[in-house]
Amino acid sequence: xxxxxxxxxxxxxxxxxxxxxxxxxxxxxxxxxxxxxxxxxxxxxxxxxxxxxxxxxxxxxxxxxxxxxxx
Length: 71
Hints:
Elements: H1 3-20, H2 24-38, H3 42-56
Helix pairs in contact: 1-2, 2-3
């Protein structure tokens, strides 16, 4: 893997860890950094949108899962 690919993987892992740890603002910030460095993609958009939703309406029993509604 290239250095950029390794960096993208590390940043993506940090974003996912932030989300599963209910650190939604951190997740959003990391997703924005990924988009700035590597371009927008569906993964960052998904985690950013879910984090924004959780901030706006905190789920009562958050367990870190994401239910996908489309392929």
